[in-house]
Amino acid sequence: MRTDDFDFDLPENLIAQHPPAKRGQSRLLCLKDGMLEDAMFSDFPQRMKAGDVLVLNDTRVIKARLFGFKQSGGKVEVLIERVLNEHEALAQIRASKSPLSGSLLLLAGELEASVLGREGEFFHLRFPTDTPLLELLDHYGNLPLPPYITHAAGEEDEARYQTVFARISGAVAAPTAGLHFSDEMLKALEARGVKIRYVTLHVGAGTFQPVRAEHIKDHAMHSERYEIPQDTVDAIADTRVSGSRVVAVGTTSLRALESAAKNGLKAGWGETNIFITPGFQFLVVDALLTNFHLPRSTLLMLVSAFGGMDEIRAAYRHAIKNEYRFFSYGDAMLIERKKQTT
Length: 342
Prior knowledge:
The chain is of the alpha/beta class. It has helices at 133-140, 155-160, 183-191, 230-242, 251-260, 298-307, 309-321, and strands spanning 27-32, 35-40, 53-57, 59-61, 65-70, 75-83, 88-95, 104-107, 111-119, 122-126, 168-171, 195-201, 224-228, 246-249, 268-272, 287-291, 332-336. The longest helix is centred in the C-terminal third of the chain and has 13 residues, at 230-242. The protein is globular and about 60 Å long.
C-alpha cells in the first residue's frame, strides 16, 4: 500500500489556529455503516449508552520546548521528546550544526544541559541540577504547539491545549480528541451510566511526522510509553459480558488499548511502536472519537483501518466540502468500527 493512497488536498483556511470559545462547541461528524451524519459535539452524550466504557488518555502536556545556545554561540531549539528520569531526556535539536557529544547547551538563559550522545534521531541530554527535570521544564520551557499552528503559545493555549482531565505529565503533544470535553460533559456522561476510565500514553512529537516512505510498510514507527490501570481492564471485561461498547477517545487511547491487547489485555506499563494500517484486526475498541488528521500521516492510516479506507475518504471529502475545522483545535469525528473480515 502506498503513502499516496492517504494524501488529500486541504485548504489552509480549514486548519484551526485557535480552539472554539468554549470546550464542546465543536462540530461532530458521525460515521456508521458507511453513512455520514452532521452533528454538534454537545450531542455526544446522547450517542453513548449506559454501560458503555469511554476511555480517555490522562497524559499531561509538558513545556517541552527550550531555546538557547551551543558553547560555540550558535542558536539551538530543543524539543524534549521523552523524559527518561529526573535529570535526563531524549530530545530533538534544531541548529545550524548538530551539537557534539560532550558539549554543553545553555538554555533559557541559565539552564545548562550536557549532550551525552545520540539515540537515532534524538539527542540524549542530561540536566545536572538538583531540581527534577519536569520542574525545570515547567519553569523554563514553552508549550510545544503543533507545527501547523502558526502563532506562539499564549495564555489561551496554556489552558486549552490541555485536557480538563490531564493528570500525569509526560506528553509533548496533547491527546487532542480529549480537548473537546468539559467537566460538565463528563458529569453528564456519568449521569447516563457511561463508565469513564483512563489510560496514559505520553504522546511524542513523532505523531506530527508525515510518512515519507513511498510504501507504508517501509515506515519506521515512533515509540511511545503507555499504562493501562486495572480498573480500565476490568471495565472493558464487563462490556464483553453486557454487550456494551468500548469507545476510545483519541488515537492515543486506541493505540494503548490495542497494543496491550495483543497478548491479552492486562494492566501495567508497556512500550508501543504499533503501526495500525488497513487490514489490522482490532481486539478492543468498538468506536473511536477523534479529530481530523494530517494528509499522509500514521493517524490517517489508523482511522482508515478502523472506519474503512473508502468510508474515511468519503468522510474527509464531506468534511472539506462542509468546512469542518481540521487538526488539534478542530472539529471531531465519531467512527463506529467497520465490521472486520477474517
